[in-house]
Amino acid sequence: MSGAVDLSSLKQPPAGAASAGDYAVGEADFETKVLRRSMQVPVIVALYSQRSPGSVELVRTLERLVVADGGAWELATVEAEANMRIAQALRVQGIPTVIAIAAGQPLADFEGAQPEPQVRQWLDAVVDAVAGKLEGGAAEPQPAEDPRFAAAEDALERGDLAGAEAAYEAILAAEPNNEEAKGALRQLRFLARAQQVPDSALATADQDPANVDAAIDAADLELLNQRPEAAFDRLIAVVKRTAGDDRTKARTRLLELFELFDQAEPFVVAARRKLAAALY
Question: What gap in Å lies between CA 80 and CA 94, rounded to an integer?
Fold first, then answer.
């Protein structure tokens, strides 16, 4: 889950949204702030969406409780829509989802908004379960940040998508094989595109199966909503029933979506097999 930039700033929080503040974690620092840190104390990972009032309120509850507990555990808030690979790696099925990580492994979890007393009871059980079993101590020092990636992330924080894209392209111009920059650029371009797709795209595609452009938009929206298998299956169906330019267009977009994930992921491997069968 390391080796990719945190693109959470692409999602501009609406008025009254939760402030991730010091607790925000993305793909770039998940290994350091969650997996490694969980060797010392349990880390509570809250995957949420700014579009879900219930998950925003749950994040606020956890922010209050982590301060009150004074270091007994640490909080990592992950905006799921901007960090799809984290959500997939943790096998998240719904938003919000809260997962306790200890010694680098998931320990316990719950899904859905919960009242504060129930969250408190769950947290106490997690802390009790790992008491005396972790190393303890201060967090490991973080490696120095590459200034080129820092510049790209700064551009994202300012909402300058063109500037961020140019920064990643400059890295690749100097280092064509820089996988981190390649992955970041792919994610940036996907998120910038998918966030422009209207929520009605799914209904439009379902009502007009012959509309290839509508199917491509619907697949983007499904992937943005953490449903990669549905997105892949939709485009594979288009490839199977079309020919010529329409088939090429759908296949090209499907291959682009594959590249957003680890190619060893079982659902990617399965989709590639289905694509091969559809083509031949």
Answer: 10
Q: Are residues 250 and 157 both part of a single domain?
A: no
pTM score: 0.51
Interatomic CA distance for residues 187 and 83, integer angstroms: 9
Rounded-to-5 percentages of helix, strand, coil across the chain: 55, 10, 35
138 part of a folded domain? no
- How far apart are the C-alpha atoms of 1 and 26, rounded to whole Å? 9
- 21 and 97 together in one domain: yes
Q: Which domain holds residue 124?
A: 8-130
**pLDDT at residue 269 is higher than 50:** yes
Q: Let me know whether 85 and 153 are in one domain.
A: no
Q: Helices 179-194 and 161-174: crossing angle, nearest 10°?
A: 160
**Considering the domain boundaries, does residue 55 fall inside one?**
yes
Question: What stretch of H or E contains 58?
Answer: helix 53-68
Residue 157 to residue 193: CA distance in whole angstroms = 18
**Residue 257 contacts by C-beta under 8 Å, 6 or more apart in sequence?**
190, 219, 223, 228, 231, 232, 235
pLDDT class of 229 with cuts at 50, 70, 90:
very high
